[in-house]
Amino acid sequence: MEGLGERLEKTFQFSYGAKEKKQTISGKINLPLQETITECCHRLMSQQNFPCFLEDELKKDLIIFVEKSKEKISDEYSESVTNTLDDSTEQRLISEWCQSFSEETKEHSKPEEISNELVFSEIYNQLIHSQLQTTILKLENSYARAVDDLISRRNVELNDMRNRQSAAMDKLATMGSRYTDEEINRITHQQFEKIQMLESKWESELTALYDKQRREYREWLLEVHQDLKTGNDLSHLLDENMLSSQSIYGQDNSIANENRLEESFTIHLGAQLKTTHNLRLVRSNILDLCKYSNHGHFAASPIRLQNSMSLYSNAISAMVLIVDDRLNSYFGIKQDFKMICQDSTEFHWNDFDKQLEDIKTILNGKKLQPGDCYVTRHSNLSNVQVVFHLVTDMDTLKTGDVSSRHPVLLGYRNIIRTCFQHDITSLTLPLLLVQDVTEQMTISWCMKRSELVFKCIKGFLMELSTWSAKQSRTVTFLVPNGISQNMFSDISNLLESIFRMSNPVVVSKA
Amino acid sequence: MKCPKLGKALLGAQTFCGINYSNDECGANGLPLTPTSIKILGRFKHQLLKLRHPNLCKYISLHRSKHERVVVVAEYYEKNLLEIINNQSEYFRDFELLSCLANEIVGSLVYLDKHDIVNRNLSPSVILFDENNRVKLFEYGLFYVTGWGQDVKFPIGQLKYMSPEVIAAGPKAKFGICNFSSKVDVWSVGLILLEAYIGTILWKELTTAKTIKKILSYLKFDGSAFDIIIKEDLNENQQKQIKLLPSEIYTLIRQCLLISAADRPKIQALYNFRLFKNFSKDVEKFDVRDDMFASTSRMKNFDFKCNAGNECMSDFLLEERTLDEIYYLWCIAGGDAINSFKKAFLVRPEPPVTTLPKFISLEGESAGQMRDKSNLYDGSVLILSQDQLRKRLSNLTEEDFFPLLNSELEKTGVSTNRSRNSNEFNQSESLPRIIREADVEYQFRRIILFDRLLLAYPSKQRDLQKEARIDIPPFLRAKIWSALLNVKGDIQGHFDSIDKETTIAIDRQIEVDIPRCHQYHELLSSPSGHQKLRRVLKAWVVNHPEYVYWQGLDSLAAPFVALNFDDEALAFCCLENFIPKYLHNFFLKDNSEVIQEYLAVFSHLISFHFPELSNHLNEIGFVPDLYAIPWFLTMFAHVLPLTSLWHIWDTLLLGNSSFPLCLGVAILEQLSPRLLQCEFNECILLFSDLPELDIERVVNNAIKIFRSTPKTATYRRHAHVKTDEKMKDTYYSEEYSLKKECLIANDPISLSELKREKLPRICSQDLLELLEFRKSSPSSSPTKVNGSDTSKPKMLIMDIRNPEE
Amino acid sequence: MANRTASRPANGQNKICQFKLVLLGESAVGKSSLVLRFVKGQFHEFQESTIGAAFLTQTVCLDDTTVKFEIWDTAGQERYHSLAPMYYRGAQAAIVVYDITNQDTFSRAKTWVKELQRQASPNIVIALAGNKCDLSNKRMVECEEAQAYAEENSLLFMETSAKTAMNVNDIFLAIAKKLPKNDGGSGGNGSSGVSLERTDPSSGGGCCK
């Protein structure tokens, strides 16, 4: 009994009375039956004005009729599939069944299916939730310091060379026309090559360090886990400074930002059943959100601990980075972001460049278009584990005319839907769809843009929580640093009016 | 209809995943596709939950989890046929045992066939045995519940026991309707009986491909595969055994294994075989109602067991409780079936961060996603440990299980004689509802108590009402509501006799309203839910020619359908009794008089209780006509989610037809701080999306308002006048309109006058009562109030008559 | 039914006009969805049916004029028809909605137009909206047919989709443009340049003069 699927109309005939006065009555019956036999019987009786003494007889006949009709349908079907059987069909059937069993049932699937990644994630998740968490963080910290060290040395050396080169160029310039343009070009070229060589030397050194650290780290975790399982004494691994954890965890050292403004809201969405969500309005540079201020010491950060603990959990955090349609990280915000990723070793996922390569493979030559979005995963950023890189045409976004059907908003919808499907419970996104303040952004421009995005996000949240109503989510709307305090509070008021803040708790008058 | 008792059964859970429609696919009606887990849940509650047969493991519950995963909980036993064949290969050489086995399997399949369920999942491992060695078929609803396989990716059934036509149809042969009949199960029965008899599992060494080849090869022959199997697969000794088979059994197996589906008997035909002539074949009897609406004697199935052995008392008594009740308690005792699977490593979901796609296109297609292997089908059964629950209930005594009901002797006060824990129990009553509903022991006592009151229904109706004033245990809400609504008699016969099939004029309206009615609710948004709501609505319209379908009737019916998802007749009868009680004549073709009067009285009540608010609302022109029609026409069912509505109606059902007005006033009161600050536009916007309300406070305030409202203030000419009520009302549920002494009733004023007036008229007796010259009658509120109400109304009486009068 | 006073801060440059707009049409054609898309920018597939009527407001800025719509969204069921005059009485604009995938809803829309022409304010601006044009593969009402009908009856016409937001803002804007905004003889408090019109439904025929 399901409204779907086609129904077959059959004519049912029922005869009664003695031979000479035999009466036949017919009625329409739809198969599969959407009513019970009893109901059907009552219906026919009242429609045809049957005398009630015929009820039992009618019902009996009806049952037989329905049974026969159903049997006929299924017999015909069975015959149709068995009659057409030839060798090729048989081969097809065999492969279809085999595939179906081996790909969809555990019993017939290959046994070694538990992936290394799953094993590693389970081990990590177990250890980070154990007493060893401080030890792990300390280890990660010491690795990060090593990377930091190397990067500092690289920067010093590169700066040195750049300084020397520019000094040399200056010198050349002061010497006036003793060098031809051609010669100057040659020297410039040489300088550039030198820099490149130096850069790639450091690059490979860094890569080697990342690889080494990653290998060591993972081996160490597996070992410790083994020890833990076999009950070996791990007290030597426990941090003797545990007691002084106060001082370790004391300061929150994510980017201290005097520019940062923040407001939080709780909202209820939905006409009948309401879902509760949290909204935040934050003024900050988007990259500051995922950067540890002094990465050399992040072991001490409670944010780092929280990040590590939620990495494999069912409550992960993501942010949206608005990017252009080239899949690389050479310029602007994409380069800045990559630098942050490289501040320390990525122990869990492929490094950022490799992830981009994977995405390139998936794209298979297809060009990125506005509204597309590629996804990268990170274990060494602050506050987020997942980054959605939303492709857009930067120029049109800076002008005013963006409608609710603009690709970037459809992209937001796809992203929010992905969040709902994959337990991403916290999402940060640029409210104004741009990451820097420009002159075009007048007050009315900002308000109009905010209104559009607020309304769209509200709509998406309502629409997508239709059947997954229980979980509440946090959406952080980010506005760039250049937004004034006044504007910030205007936007905050707008948010309140669009999302119709839930009732403040009313103190009952007793 | 009553669920079987727990007995020695275990609670077994299984889990599988439905197909995930990841993209924005839409169905034929332009609406997004219903998630498969919702469709599955709908079918489960519609059909599987209703099935009960002594040889079927009772289905108990189905939960949805993330990513279209569902968990099915059912009665379970550890002993199964596969084990017997493997370990006691000669067990079924005994022809009597073999016939009995055949009879029990076939009998249960006949019952399933009667409910249009094709099993297609038969194998020795799902044929279980209880402690009395009675067959208990398990996992028999998988094919049905998955929409004949269309909602899942995995193939249903054990390959080896599939009939040739099932194999030939291929794994992807999935349709909205079932193309197979019970004949596919008949084939499996034949093979299973053969294996049971010879005590060997056939074709153990064959690969999947070879098994398919073998079964398909039969299609080249006519006649029975039995003959081929004897020749090809049995050894000499086994062939000898076959020769010893009595002809009835031999024929049975041979007929079951007829290769052509057209020749093979249907299950019902099989049941008529000579082998079964000495067994009872009445499968109808299992569906006869034996609950409070039984059309036959309810005493028939009544048995009180006493503890004969020295077993642990509470364990023994628990076994006397029903399976669904035990499972309900298991859940509130902290049980979580899906979590149990994770703990047992039977489900190892990949962390979400690893299953994310790497790329999402503008069109919403995602790519680079890792397949989560934990979604593969794994038929393992997890036994849910009852230890925790038993521990939580270990303090219960025999008296707790059998409380005495002797309220008829006591006219007032506590109605039931409670055991020594009653002090503690009374304390629980004053805790917030949400805490009470999560308290296992409290719920257990409430269930026991109401269960007994319901057993006596309708004779203990008054006690039931009194107890319901304390609270209603959610587990029994459906039955308690129907008792409060005074549903009686042969409800099934009544419902069955109404034509819900023939097209009527209002069909289109119902059709467009249903997919918009409480669609956040998992049952009401399922195809089965739509179908049920349609049938209940049509039945009501057809059965009440004096009334018509007004939009809103759908919302009104929805709570009853959701609550009685496995019992349409009861849902219908509750609706049918609810409407005259609270919405008398609201569904007249011309209902404006009725509604206008109702709203006018509502206005008066606002003025009476909250003059400041009333003045403000009148000033800005925010009259009830603008917002309160959907409130009252649907008794709040259109504006509140069902989760809130349960609690509102728990109390509403105890009051008379003016109580809903008090609920409305209480809602306004809760919103009044905001309303008082708002102008017209803001007010109406506020009500276009009713803000989240504190329901417990609304209910409690409504009761206070009700108690302090003079009865005559709520007088309505259009209120229902009861005629044939035999049951004596308690004071609070009585319709005041009937009272003879009521002067207002004898001298009604016109609607226009009523609308013009700002305040209610009350009669002199009510005035005296307000002044507390008259002692207020006891039990005058829908729920029990401890202690006396100290807030006396302050009153100023003004004479506004002209001096001449 | 509603007799209330409105006070609006007089704004030097901007003229503020307030108009009453009513949505009419068969059940489930998407009246509420259109309004919600316009006012709240949201869309809900399973939008609950409207019982009686619902009310929302939205302001539209047109050059130097601010147009404030008071929108009455009515119940679609034929039976609620008796309530409809209460809502369209005094309305300066109406959107009659039909569903392009259902011919019957178009016929019903025509009936509504007739009734409005007969019963509503004489200067009422009527727009016809063919909604659900995202489902054009299931189209039953041809765009040309509706267009021709609209022209015959001098209605504004657009095919809309509350789901994709197509033409939703546009149709409200078109109405706003077409509504008369000159301020002669305002029935309000008459402050300069501000059209304040409290429409009292019982008086009928009020229009923003």
Automatic annotation (TrEMBL), chain A:
<protein>
    <submittedName>
        <fullName>Uncharacterized protein</fullName>
    </submittedName>
</protein>
<dbReference type="InterPro" id="IPR019311">
    <property type="entry name" value="Fy-3"/>
</dbReference>
<dbReference type="InterPro" id="IPR043472">
    <property type="entry name" value="Macro_dom-like"/>
</dbReference>
<dbReference type="GO" id="GO:0005737">
    <property type="term" value="C:cytoplasm"/>
</dbReference>
<dbReference type="Pfam" id="PF10154">
    <property type="entry name" value="Fy-3"/>
</dbReference>
Automatic annotation (TrEMBL), chain B:
<dbReference type="InterPro" id="IPR011009">
    <property type="entry name" value="Kinase-like_dom_sf"/>
</dbReference>
<dbReference type="GO" id="GO:0031267">
    <property type="term" value="F:small GTPase binding"/>
</dbReference>
<dbReference type="InterPro" id="IPR035969">
    <property type="entry name" value="Rab-GAP_TBC_sf"/>
</dbReference>
<dbReference type="InterPro" id="IPR050302">
    <property type="entry name" value="Rab_GAP_TBC_domain"/>
</dbReference>
<dbReference type="GO" id="GO:0004672">
    <property type="term" value="F:protein kinase activity"/>
</dbReference>
<dbReference type="Pfam" id="PF00069">
    <property type="entry name" value="Pkinase"/>
</dbReference>
<feature type="domain" description="Rab-GAP TBC">
    <location>
        <begin position="471"/>
        <end position="656"/>
    </location>
</feature>
<dbReference type="GO" id="GO:0005524">
    <property type="term" value="F:ATP binding"/>
</dbReference>
<feature type="compositionally biased region" description="Polar residues">
    <location>
        <begin position="776"/>
        <end position="790"/>
    </location>
</feature>
<dbReference type="GO" id="GO:0005096">
    <property type="term" value="F:GTPase activator activity"/>
</dbReference>
<protein>
    <submittedName>
        <fullName>DgyrCDS11001</fullName>
    </submittedName>
</protein>
<dbReference type="Pfam" id="PF00566">
    <property type="entry name" value="RabGAP-TBC"/>
</dbReference>
<feature type="region of interest" description="Disordered">
    <location>
        <begin position="775"/>
        <end position="805"/>
    </location>
</feature>
<feature type="domain" description="Protein kinase">
    <location>
        <begin position="1"/>
        <end position="276"/>
    </location>
</feature>
<dbReference type="InterPro" id="IPR000195">
    <property type="entry name" value="Rab-GAP-TBC_dom"/>
</dbReference>
From TrEMBL, chain C:
<keyword id="KW-0449">Lipoprotein</keyword>
<feature type="region of interest" description="Disordered">
    <location>
        <begin position="182"/>
        <end position="209"/>
    </location>
</feature>
<comment type="similarity">
    <text>Belongs to the small GTPase superfamily. Rab family.</text>
</comment>
<keyword id="KW-0547">Nucleotide-binding</keyword>
<keyword id="KW-0813">Transport</keyword>
<keyword id="KW-0967">Endosome</keyword>
<protein>
    <recommendedName>
        <fullName>small monomeric GTPase</fullName>
        <ecNumber>3.6.5.2</ecNumber>
    </recommendedName>
</protein>
<dbReference type="GO" id="GO:0015031">
    <property type="term" value="P:protein transport"/>
</dbReference>
<keyword id="KW-0342">GTP-binding</keyword>
<dbReference type="GO" id="GO:0003925">
    <property type="term" value="F:G protein activity"/>
</dbReference>
<keyword id="KW-0378">Hydrolase</keyword>
<keyword id="KW-0636">Prenylation</keyword>
<dbReference type="Pfam" id="PF00071">
    <property type="entry name" value="Ras"/>
</dbReference>
<dbReference type="InterPro" id="IPR027417">
    <property type="entry name" value="P-loop_NTPase"/>
</dbReference>
<dbReference type="GO" id="GO:0005769">
    <property type="term" value="C:early endosome"/>
</dbReference>
